[in-house]
Amino acid sequence: NLLLGGAAAGAGAAALVGGDALLRAAGGGEPAAAPEPPFGGRTVAFHGRHQAGIATPPQAHARFIALDLEGGTDRGAVRRLLRLLSDDAARLTAGEAALADTEPELAHDPAGLTVTFGFGRGLVERVDPAAVPEWLGPLPEFGRDRLSERWCGGDLLLQVCADDPVSVSHAARMLTKDSRAFARVRWVQEGFRRARGAQPAGATMRNLMGQVDGTTNPAPGTPDFADLVWHRGGGGAGAAWLRHGSALVVRRIAMDLDEWDRLDRPGREEAVGRRLSDGAPLTGGGEHDEPDFEAVGALGFPVIPEYAHIRRARSADPAERIFRRAYNYEDTEGAGLVFAAFQADVTRQFVPIQRRLDELDLLNEWVTAIGSAVFAVPPGCGPDGFVGETLFA
Ligand code: HEM
After folding, report:
1. Which of 208, 302, 380, 393 gives 20 to 30 Å between its CA and that of 329?
2. Is 26 a residue whose pLDDT tops 60?
3. Are the CB atoms for 341 and 206 separated by under 8 Å?
4. Contact yes or no for 175/90 (Cβ under 8 A)
5. 364 Cβ inside 6 Å of ligand 1
6. Contact 122, 71 (CB under 8 A)
7. φ and ψ of 340, to 5 deg
8. Atom 6, ligand 1: which residue's CA is nearest?
9. DSSP state of 187
10. Kindly report the CA angle at 58 between 350 and 324, in degrees rounded to 5?
11. Which residues pair with 29 in a beta bridge?
């Protein structure tokens, strides 16, 4: 707490306190400050109107697991599967062992665990073909995409997030184990942000290109967020089941970090339209101040270039916005972003933004989508219910 307080008061002070603490620890072997209480016991409610893991402040670790239903998994079996997985998720997120948990001790420190379910077109079709929203399925083709089948699609998504990687691992294992009779794993994507406590709570994350990423995002808990993210159940008779739910687009976007390394700092900042140091717009102010898209420099050129990412990603239509909840990834093949975006309507929100970026965006030089999937995110459920029950109503 002392350290976090220092960081909030000023980066310089925090550095001093940190350095001093390090010296003392190195000299006397004494702990410099009272240790933080463990956060492993922290829980996020599973039951509620909306599923957890959307408006929930992003935890440090995420695993996105896409499953494909087996041929024999009919409507009744899907219902049994969803009941089983909802029961597992309710227990695990509360810090309790799942039924038939083979490693119950691993369930005891959920560390803010959330499990969020998303349904691909295949699952909804199997339960009720009339309930498939128009946008549920592969996105329209984008010229710059280089999609690999191994990162695309899926009938059922489990987004498992927690501040501790062991909590994520255990929950993922229990959920996939209980799915085995009904479905097989199609792809798994791991994501990470800063460790909990590494930065003051609420700090915007940085992606692996070093940019502050997530500044201009609807704020959870506000009417603006509710309008943009939660489905209202409209849009055709069949969509009523999605009321209080949402839609999720998961894109695996590879970064060419070696090429990015060759670019100088001004070039990097112009590609986005924001400063690397603190994420503030190139037109000045702090991270959360509005960019001035009209401002021109001494030579008469716009300070935020015409094709800067933030200019191209922004629409004049306030309804054409999304809620980004992305994670970094890194594996033996490279690094990038597991770009996860929630919205009420994919066609109306994600697609037009992506169209503009696909057409022109300075960032395109260094980023390429290699995976893509769309899921309908059902509403939350009560203690006696299960996620997805509204689809069977
Ligand atoms: C803003 C990075 C892909 C939509 C930003 C910002 C950064 C960034 C640094 C500025 C800070 C902020 O407001 O978050 C990236 C990187 C990407 C990527 C590195 C790929 C690896 C995408 C994609 C979309 C998107 C695929 C949607 C189709 C947006 C939006 C904003 C934004 C809507 C806010 C623009 C505004 O200020 O109104 N992104 N982005 N980004 N990005 Fe991206």
Report:
1. 380
2. no
3. no
4. no
5. no
6. no
7. -120, 125
8. 213
9. E
10. 15
11. none
Q: Look up residue 65 and give its amino acid.
A: I
Of 106, 3, 113, 119, the C-alpha closest to 58 is: 113
Quick check: is 213 catalytic? yes
310 lines ligand 1 (CB under 6 A): yes
Which atom of ligand 1 lies closest to the CA of 350?
Answer: 28
Q: Is 214 in the pocket of ligand 1 (CB under 6 A)?
A: yes
Write the burial class of residue 342 (CB in 10 Å: 0-12 exposed, 13-18 middle, 19+ buried): buried
Residues 148 and 264: their CA atoms lie apart, in Å, by: 31
Report ipTM (2 d.p.): 0.99
**Pairwise CA distance, residues 17 & 388, whole Å:** 50
Neighbours of 390 (CB within 10 A): 18
CA dist., res. 161 & res. 113, Å (int): 6
Ligand 1, atom 41: nearest CA belongs to which residue?
313
State the catalytic residue, choosing from 164, 213, 345, 361. Answer: 213
